[in-house]
């Protein structure tokens, strides 16, 4: 049977396995002219999916109840009645959590297995890399010698942001939640400093110590008290990229924080929400640069690969809980 | 005797008269070659001065204790040994709170009494107008038909922001603290809607009612709960100009607020601190436009003029307490 994973109910607070439901259907749906039959190979689980599970107003519409969840997926074309794709092609795109599914090919990108491993097209040369590259460049506008702080630094996006920061000649400080992650940031990804927010009592002071000249760019993946502590250390004309707020996604009450307005006005600083899809016109240039750096060995990436389609919901929960290192991916 | 007003001690929380001290000195200081002797005519009291009275890190250095406070002042040249200025010239610039003072002329602008009243050079065709015009244009990037919310709308900057918004074809909503101010916003300054935050129980709902299509631009002079309420109503790609945070300037504890990060990321919105002095290269163009609009009768302005140099500290306290309508000015 062909399995799919539906959203059964909207999570309240932290999602649980009971919010998901496995549904079975025909093994081989039949395709019409212009269509493709795809078999999922790799599925990406990402923090932003939590937002789509709620029905609050957001930049992407909420998932519908009792319908399959969708996210970034790498799939193989196993049948085709569309001239643009042939059997055996690999594609990536926003697809459903289904073992097999029909597509018109719209919005899918053919990907080249020989240039990078298939799973990398969900990460370093896919949305993850693009988010890091474009967020840092378009809002952060980095200049050599400046200081960059990255929260969620051991996550998929964060680890790439820090590496690009080093390529551009920045002083890079990563914030993460275990000593093992901090070691990895410094030894594998070349970060200058790492701060374990779970064992550090005074984050404000720790950031000041790592950034004695102040913080020029803050790439924020988490929000919450970590971001409050960074605020106290920003410089004149600081740029803060709000890429995510994973610390509050599961909150059921409206989260409070240190008021940012006095810091922004005192420092003529900028804070901007970043959604990679708004920068689609810049994808080709950015992907080329990322592929070049990857080929030159200047960019490394981590994946946490979970095996088995049936483990996709658990992989999502683990990712929300910070159990991944780098990009969390399900190998179908 | 020639009087000056010194900062005697740094205010804790709300400033009081005892934080200021009157000091007397020689009636006519003697001037050297290249210098001018100035007599103050009008003194501007502004919210940002509160920040300079503290010794916290800010965009302008703190005032020194036991030295005169300085702010925008219009003065007359009563003696000159500087070829660029003649006796009887009027100038505006950042000057000390002194009845008479010596200047080298540096940083002073000659002003033309025939084009606008002297006091207007501290307001509508001075820093106030420039702050409104440049904040709205440089960060707000207004487009005809968009919705603009202004807090502190009956204040000096706010009332100009709203009027420029109307000239540019925006739907303009002003927030202020008395019904009298709300009436003035609508009847005199042409705002489309006014909200009295002191008598409105549900600010979030009131803003939604006045802005059924959501808020595209928020010109924020106040911070605090008013700004929290606006956040819930922002649109995709909203721009928030943080021009001031008068609601927190007197706070002694770090103020908390609704966390802005989730709103910014959901809406790809931007929030930026605005300090007019960073845009000095745009002053000539902006002043020309403001003067043109003023001449055409498209811009009106309000002043609250307090008479007497000795009332300057009280005028500052009253302005911090919202007792002014429009620009608060002391006539020396």
UniProtKB/TrEMBL annotation, chains A, B:
<keyword id="KW-0560">Oxidoreductase</keyword>
<dbReference type="GO" id="GO:0016628">
    <property type="term" value="F:oxidoreductase activity, acting on the CH-CH group of donors, NAD or NADP as acceptor"/>
</dbReference>
<feature type="domain" description="Enoyl reductase (ER)">
    <location>
        <begin position="13"/>
        <end position="330"/>
    </location>
</feature>
<dbReference type="InterPro" id="IPR011032">
    <property type="entry name" value="GroES-like_sf"/>
</dbReference>
<dbReference type="InterPro" id="IPR020843">
    <property type="entry name" value="ER"/>
</dbReference>
<dbReference type="InterPro" id="IPR013149">
    <property type="entry name" value="ADH-like_C"/>
</dbReference>
<keyword id="KW-1133">Transmembrane helix</keyword>
<protein>
    <recommendedName>
        <fullName>Enoyl reductase (ER) domain-containing protein</fullName>
    </recommendedName>
</protein>
<dbReference type="Pfam" id="PF00107">
    <property type="entry name" value="ADH_zinc_N"/>
</dbReference>
<dbReference type="InterPro" id="IPR036291">
    <property type="entry name" value="NAD(P)-bd_dom_sf"/>
</dbReference>
<feature type="transmembrane region" description="Helical">
    <location>
        <begin position="118"/>
        <end position="136"/>
    </location>
</feature>
<dbReference type="InterPro" id="IPR045010">
    <property type="entry name" value="MDR_fam"/>
</dbReference>
<keyword id="KW-0812">Transmembrane</keyword>
<dbReference type="Pfam" id="PF16884">
    <property type="entry name" value="ADH_N_2"/>
</dbReference>
<dbReference type="InterPro" id="IPR041694">
    <property type="entry name" value="ADH_N_2"/>
</dbReference>
<keyword id="KW-0472">Membrane</keyword>
């Amino acid at each position: 049977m062909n399995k799919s994973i539906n959203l059964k109910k909207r999570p309240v607070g932290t999602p649980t396995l009971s919010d998901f439901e496995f549904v079975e259907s025909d093994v081989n749906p039949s395709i019409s002219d212009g269509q493709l039959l795809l078999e999922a190979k790799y599925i990406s689980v990402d923090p932003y999916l939590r937002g789509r599970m709620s029905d609050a107003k957001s930049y992407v519409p909420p998932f519908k109840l009792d319908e399959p969840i969708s996210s970034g997926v790498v799939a193989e074309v196993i049948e085709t009645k569309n001239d643009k794709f042939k059997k055996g092609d690999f594609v990536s795109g926003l697809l459903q959590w289904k073992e097999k599914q029909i597509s018109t090919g719209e919005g899918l990108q053919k990907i080249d297995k020989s240039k990078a491993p298939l799973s990398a097209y969900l990460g370093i040369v896919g949305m993850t890399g693009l988010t890091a590259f474009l967020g840092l460049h378009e809002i952060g506008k980095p200049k050599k010698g400046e200081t960059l702080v990255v929260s969620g630094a051991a996550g998929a996006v964060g680890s790439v942001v820090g590496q690009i920061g080093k390529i551009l000649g920045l002083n890079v400080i990563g914030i993460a939640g275990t000593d093992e992650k901090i070691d990895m940031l410094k030894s594998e990804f070349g970060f200058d400093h790492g701060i374990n927010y779970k064992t550090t009592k005074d984050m404000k002071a720790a950031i000041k110590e790592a950034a004695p000249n102040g913080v020029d760019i803050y790439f924020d993946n988490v929000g919450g008290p970590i971001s409050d502590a960074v605020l106290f250390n920003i410089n004149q004309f600081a740029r803060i990229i709000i890429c995510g707020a994973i610390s509050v996604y599961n909150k059921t009450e409206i989260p409070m924080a240190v008021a940012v307005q006095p810091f922004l006005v005192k420092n003529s600083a900028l804070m901007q929400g970043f959604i990679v899809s708004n920068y689609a016109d810049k994808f080709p240039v950015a992907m080329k640069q990322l592929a070049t750096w990857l080929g030159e060995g200047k960019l490394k990436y981590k994946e946490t690969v979970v095996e088995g389609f049936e483990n996709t919901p658990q992989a999502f929960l683990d990712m929300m809980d910070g159990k991944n290192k780098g990009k969390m991916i399900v190998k179908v």
